[in-house]
Amino acid sequence: MSGTIETVTGPIQAEQLGVTLMHEHIFVRNLELEANFPAPEWDEEVFIQRAREGLQALMARGIRSMVDLTVIGLGRDIHPIIRIAEGLDFNIIAATGYYTFKDLPSFFHNHGPGRMIEGPDPLHQMFVRDIREGISGTRVKAGIIKVATDKPGFTPDVTRVFEAAVRAHKDTGVPITTHSDAAEKGGLEQQDFFRRNGVDLTRTVIGHCGDSDDFDYLQRLMDAGSFIGMDRFGLTWFATDEARTRTVAKLCRRGYADRMTLSHDAGYYSVNSEPSYRDKALPAWKHTLISDVIIPRLREQGVTEAQLHQMMVVNPTRILAAR
């Protein structure tokens, strides 16, 4: 595999990516809310240090890279992420995109083609600028585009986000990853949108598929060409880790290791579910769970070293390497 991959500390060669967690977060915040009503558990210096220690713990387990899918709508702030990455031999891939299940802010209703303030779609401009020039005036270039649908489906505003993502993908070659509602089989609707708009499905990852053990649904997504994210290990609200592990192992036995990625969708801090809550309600939902617990269980269920390497090294590299 050849090509380059953009990281927070600059571009790397594809072969430098190594073992990768493909759907994670470092900090999830709501900057407007917190500016007016400070979050009692947030301390930037404390959590920067906690995140650095967390990444060092991953390095000790052989993890080399993490894709941070915190985009606008999830409180993206690249500046503390730059500080976290400094001096660490660890790759953080930043994302562009917009996270909403239903509506966009009024700014987007007023700006764009055919709107009150006529001009290009600012969403598309933002995505391309993040990829080509850098995020928030920095030199950190986004390496992936993140979009989302959930139970409301393709509302007018969500459709607009997806349209902008597709245009940015075609302009830059950067892959697209999603948040989807597996219970609603939302990945099929996302895939249909990508297909109708001329996206090569092998450049897409349908996220949160590990919430489902509907093998017909999962195999339809992969047979059509997309990768699927088995990416919520530790988040037991939607499925137990035992069920998630069985599903991955069964799909490996069916020959689908070349279409899955493994991850947690975890974070070192989230304003939506504070650390004190997570520590009590979801104690296993940490970035080390796959290394410490899930991989040994997968081995016990017959998943081979080659298949683990495929899911955690080869597939992420195939997805992220620039074309």
Supply the helix-strand structural class: alpha/beta
Q: Tell me the total number of β-strands.
A: 12
Quote the CATH topology.
TIM Barrel
Q: Helix and strand succession?
A: EEEEHHEHEHHEHEHEHEHEEHHH
Distance between the termini: 11 Å
Helix content: 40-55%
State Rg: 19 Å
| Number of helices, counting only DSSP H or I runs of 4 residues or more | 12
The coarse overall form would be globular
Low-confidence stretches: none
Outline the biggest β-sheet: 8 strands, parallel
Biggest sheet strand order reads 3-5-6-7-8-9-10-11
What's the level 1 CATH class?
A: Alpha Beta
Write out the CATH superfamily name: Metal-dependent hydrolases
**Whole-number mean pLDDT:** 97
How many domains? The number is 1
Per CATH, the architecture is: Alpha-Beta Barrel
Beta fraction: 15-25%
Modified residues (N6-carboxylysine): 146
Protein name: Phosphotriesterase
Keywords: Hydrolase, Metal-binding
Family: Belongs to the metallo-dependent hydrolases superfamily. Phosphotriesterase family.
Structure overview:
The chain is an alpha/beta fold. The chain has one domain: TIM Barrel, CATH 3.20.20.140. Helix content is about 40%, strand content about 15%. It has twelve helices and twelve strands. It has helices at about 30-35, 45-60, 80-85, 105-110, 120-130, 155-170, 185-195, 215-225, 240-255, 275-280, 290-300, 305-320; strands spanning about 5, 10-15, 20-25, 25-30, 65-70, 90-95, 145-150, 175-180, 205, 225-230, 260, 270. Strands 3-5-6-7-8-9-10-11 form an eight-stranded parallel sheet. α2 packs across α3 (about 80-85). The chain is globular, with a radius of gyration of 19 Å. The mean pLDDT is about 95.
